[in-house]
Design a protein that fits this description.
The complex is a heterodimer of chains A (370) and B (334).
Chain A lengths: L21 E6 L8 E5 L2 E7 L5 E5 L13 E3 L3 E3 L6 E2 L5 E3 L14 E2 L1 E4 L2 E5 L23 E9 L3 H9 L4 H4 L8 H4 L2 E5 L3 E11 L3 H10 L7 E10 L3 E10 L12 E14 L2 E10 L6 H31 L12 H16 L6 H4 L4
Antiparallel strand pairs in A: 1-11, 2-3, 3-4, 4-9, 5-6, 6-7, 7-8, 10-11, 12-18, 13-14, 14-15, 15-16, 16-17, 17-18
Helix pairs in contact in A: 1-6
Chain B lengths: L8 E13 L2 E8 L9 E9 L2 E8 L2 E2 L5 E7 L7 H6 L6 E5 L2 E2 L9 E7 L3 H13 L4 E7 L8 H8 L3 E5 L8 H6 L5 E6 L2 H13 L7 E3 L13 E5 L4 E5 L5 H7 L17 E8 L1 E3 L7 H6 L2 E3 L4 E3 L13 E6 L2
Parallel strand pairs in B: 9-10, 9-12, 10-11, 12-13, 14-20
Antiparallel strand pairs in B: 1-2, 1-7, 2-6, 3-4, 3-8, 5-6, 14-15, 16-18, 16-20, 17-19
The chains are: A alpha+beta (370), B alpha/beta (334).
The structure holds FE2/S2 (inorganic) cluster (FES).
């Protein structure tokens, strides 16, 4: 591999995805005793649960004739039966029954991928299983912590996963894409800082002494009814490789010490985003908005979820259009401007990981399907 | 988890040969198109046996970090079908056709406990598994049995890597693996991987099947190379086709029938799939069933044979000494 590639971060339009990584395959509630199918990183998976409730991820193709196992049914304590000729595989992907013969072919297996339930999601590892350490699952503790509540949804996005990561790493687009809810001119006008380490990138932006946009005004009123004054607003965007971005957002009454750490006069939420590539041009985008105030109010949970759903709907339209424009203009490049620092660090980290896996290359070299 | 059963042929160059034990050579082959050998994988290679190119499978004992070099251990089987003798005659610098690593004996990561049993040359299939289990900090025991110290390949290397996780059993010390006790001590969270002579594998398999343990947690490699009896020449007749073929020691019944122009189906060619089935009309001798396709019940009936691996030996007892002339089987093909 070419080491010099690392010096100058490229702006690949269609980014390959690391395989030695945990990706969310589904919400915890989606995976049941009734098998389901989902493609993650170009790998179709049959997802189901064992009798003890452990999530299982098998390749969604029977060893015998590649019929989709997800169309089959669960049998016994951890088995799944192919819907075509009744061959049964266990959670390890090993054939345990071939109805038409007295023995079982010892070579009959389907790939079984490490699967772990955490933070209300089922995570899968599609790369080298000897490297799959659940301790490296991104920290999204706010998803199921007693001091936090909230809810979210999944977007099936018609774009490369990196475009979604770019979108979340630079929120100046809010002014233009989300003008009616969370956007405001101060986003572009305020300064931001970017830091990174080996696996994470953080972009911090404070907007001090501003009037809150409609979404935040409403949230602040849920705790401080009637407050009409200025606020200090923050966005602390933290990326964890390869596709998780947790954004610490909120507003507090201006000059009450929020930038210094006292958020008692404000409201705080975390937008939890985790993106799993489906193919080179489609992604599963799982998100939730979690808050640490008014935990008792299901109304606020629903309002916030629907609010963010509306906002992300606007992103979805933009991302799909962007992917189409990329496809329609194959001979044009991406160029970078100052606001892209966060996204560019993300690309640098991803490139390093891809290089380590021997997967850094153009989509043609990688044999990507168009 | 790529499709590692798809054969991709490449050139191999022998870059090192040394004696790993009595009758066992360590052979290092450099791949022209390096591919990763996951634990439990093997390569097939073409060697010249009496002027004819034949294909043989060998487990990959280890691989260099840059993936280029594969280490094999090859046991010289005096009475074998000839491949091992030819491989023992290879020299440094020789080029041969080899496949990229193929996988039929995968190690599953994630079990609570592992027992690995290697008998003799079977250690080559088990070594790479033990190395991975060591690296990921798994709970494992490696049991390695051989006739004598001198017959034990890679012993020092394994001792250095595995320390107390390695248990050595030598026939010469009358120290044998206590299979019933071992299996009684296991539970359904343990996976046992075994590669060794058929008698050892069969003993483990029988006791395992009698136990309450889950069948699939017993993992074994079936090269189909070893049987209950030494290979002998025998005669196959297909009356319906007016065919009579002498099957030499170095060939399988399937190969001999194919060479005689009989249109045969086969797939795995190692006794797993059952596609090469032939039906027995009459038998003068005994079938040495070497497949894992038929159940014990079916094998006792002797009505069908996996002709890619199973052989016919003289006399009921399978002892050539009390027989006159080669064994004969009459069959019907599909
Ligand atoms: S060809 Fe598969 S059992 Fe003989």
């Amino acid at each position: 591999m070419v080491a010099q590639n690392l010096g100058s971060t490229t702006t690949t339009k269609i980014t390959n995805y690391p395989l030695n990584a945990w990706y969310v395959a589904a919400w915890d509630y989606e995976v049941t005793r009734k098998p389901m199918s989902r493609t993650i990183a170009d790998r179709p998976l049959a997802l189901y649960r064992t009798e003890d409730g452990k999530p299982v991820a098998l390749a969604d193709a029977c060893w015998h004739r590649l019929a989709p196992l997800s169309m089959g049914k669960v049998v016994g304590k951890d088995g799944i039966q192919c819907p075509y000729h009744g061959i049964v595989f266990n959670a390890a992907g090993r054939c345990i029954s071939m109805p038409a013969q007295e023995t079982v072919n010892p070579s009959a297996t389907v790939p079984s991928f490490p699967a772990v339930q955490r933070h209300r999601y089922v995570w899968v590892w599609l790369g080298d299983p000897t490297l799959a350490d659940p301790d490296t699952i991104p920290n999204m503790f706010q998803m199921d912590h007693p001091e936090w509540t909230g809810d979210g949804r999944t977007i099936h996005a018609d774009c490369n996963y990196q475009l979604i990561v770019d979108n979340l790493m630079d929120l100046t687009h809010e002014e233009f894409v989300h003008g009616s809810s969370i956007g405001q001119a101060e986003l572009s006008e305020s300064d931001f800082t970017t830091t990174h380490d080996d696996t994470s990138v953080t972009v911090t932006r404070w907007m001090k002494g501003i009037y809150p946009p409609p979404f935040w005004k409403k949230n602040l009123h849920d705790v401080f009814p009637g407050y009409e004054g200025k606020v200090d607003r923050w966005q602390i965007i933290r990326f964890e490789a390869p596709g998780t971005i947790c954004i610490d957002v909120g507003v507090a009454k201006a000059d009450t010490g929020a930038p210094e750490g006292d958020r008692s006069q404000g409201v705080n939420a975390f937008v939890m985003n985790t993106i799993s590539p489906e193919s080179s041009k489609t992604s599963h985008y799982f998100w939730s908005i979690q808050r640490n105030y008014r935990l008792e109010s299901q109304t606020i949970t629903t309002q916030m979820r629907e609010g963010v759903h509306g906002v992300f709907g606007e992103d979805e339209v933009m991302l799909r259009a962007q992917q189409r424009a990329i496809d329609a203009n194959p001979d044009y490049e991406f160029y970078n401007i100052n606001i892209d620092a966060g996204g560019m660090w993300v690309r640098r980290l991803l490139e390093r990981q891809l290089l380590k896996e021997g997967r850094l290359g153009t989509k043609q070299e990688e044999g990507w399907t168009e | 988890m790529a499709a590692t059963n798809i054969e991709i042929w490449q050139q191999g160059e022998i870059i090192e040969i040394s004696q790993a034990a009595n009758d066992i050579k360590k052979i290092v082959i450099r791949q022209s198109n390096p591919a990763k050998a996951d634990p439990g994988s093997h390569i097939d290679l073409m060697v010249n046996v009496d002027g004819e190119m034949v294909r043989r499978s060998y487990s990959v004992a280890s691989q260099s970090e840059d993936l280029r070099d594969l280490t094999l251990g090859v046991f010289l089987v005096p009475n074998s079908r000839g491949g091992s003798i030819a491989v023992h005659e290879l020299a440094v610098g020789d080029q041969l056709d080899i496949t990229q690593p193929l996988q039929n004996f995968p190690l599953r990561v994630g079990a609570e406990r592992y027992v690995l049993i290697a008998g003799g040359i079977g250690v080559t299939a088990i070594m790479a598994m033990a190395a991975v289990l060591k690296r990921i900090g798994a709970n494992y025991t490696l049991m390695y049995a051989a006739r004598s110290k001198e017959a034990m390949a890679f012993r020092e290397e394994l001792q250095a890597i595995h320390g107390d996780n390695l248990q050595i059993f030598l026939d010469e010390d009358k120290n044998f693996i206590q299979i019933p006790e071992l299996i009684a001590s296991l539970d359904d969270n343990t996976e046992l991987y075994i590669c060794g002579p058929i008698r050892l594998m069969d003993a483990v398999r029988r006791i395992w099947l009698e136990s309450e343990l889950e069948n699939t947690n017993l993992r074994f490699e079936t090269f189909g190379a070893s049987g209950w009896y030494d290979p002998e020449e025998f005669i196959v007749r297909i009356p319906a086709k007016n065919v009579e073929v002498l099957v030499g020691k170095q060939h399988s019944m399937l190969e001999a029938l194919e060479a005689a122009g009989v249109d045969m189906l086969s797939d795995c060619r190692k006794g797993e799939c059952g596609l090469c089935e032939v039906r027995v009309l009459s038998l003068n001798g005994r079938v040495d069933h070497r497949d894992v396709f038929y159940s014990e019940r079916q094998k006792e009936q002797n009505e069908k044979i996996s002709c890619c691996v199973s052989r016919i030996v003289t006399s009921e007892s399978g002892l050539a000494a009390d027989a006159s002339g080669p064994a004969v089987v009459e069959i019907v093909t599909t």
